[in-house]
C-alpha cells in the first residue's frame, strides 16, 4: 500500500498475510525445538570438570535473597512487555 493512501479502517493498517505469519511461527517452533535438542546434547556430552574460577564471585558478596529479587524483576519486565503488546497501536 503506498504511503499516500489512507486505510479505510484501523483494521486495514496491516495487510493480512496469514501464510507468512504461519511460516514465521513454524520457523520459531523449529528453532525452539532445535535449541532444546542442542542444549540437551551439550549437557550430556560436556565432560565433568570443575568450573573455571570467576573473579566476580570473589569480589561481590553473596546476597541471600538476590535470586528471588531477580525473579521478581524478570516477572515485572515480562508483564510490562505483555501490557505494551496489548495496548500498542
UniProtKB/TrEMBL annotation:
Keyword RNA-binding appears in the UniProt entry: no
Biological process per Gene Ontology, one example term: sphingomyelin biosynthetic process
Residues passing through the membrane, by range: 21-42, 66-87
Keywords: Membrane, Transmembrane, Transmembrane helix
This protein's GO CC annotations: endoplasmic reticulum membrane; Golgi membrane; plasma membrane
This protein's record includes keyword Transmembrane helix: yes
An annotated Gene Ontology molecular function: ceramide cholinephosphotransferase activity
Protein name: Uncharacterized protein
Taxonomic source organism: Teladorsagia circumcincta (Brown stomach worm)
Domain of life per record: Eukaryota
PANTHER family on file: PHOSPHATIDYLCHOLINE:CERAMIDE CHOLINEPHOSPHOTRANSFERASE 1, SPHINGOMYELIN SYNTHETASE
Amino acid at each position: 500500500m503506498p504511503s499516500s493512501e489512507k486505510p479505510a479502517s484501523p483494521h486495514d493498517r496491516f495487510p493480512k498475510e496469514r501464510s507468512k505469519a504461519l511460516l514465521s511461527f513454524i520457523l520459531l517452533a523449529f528453532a525452539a525445538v532445535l535449541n532444546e535438542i542442542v542444549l540437551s546434547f551439550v549437557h550430556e556430552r560436556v565432560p565433568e570438570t570443575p568450573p573455571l574460577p570467576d573473579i566476580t564471585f570473589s569480589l561481590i558478596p553473596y546476597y541471600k535473597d538476590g535470586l528471588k529479587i531477580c525473579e521478581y524483576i524478570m516477572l515485572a519486565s515480562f508483564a510490562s512487555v505483555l501490557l505494551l503488546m496489548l495496548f500498542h497501536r
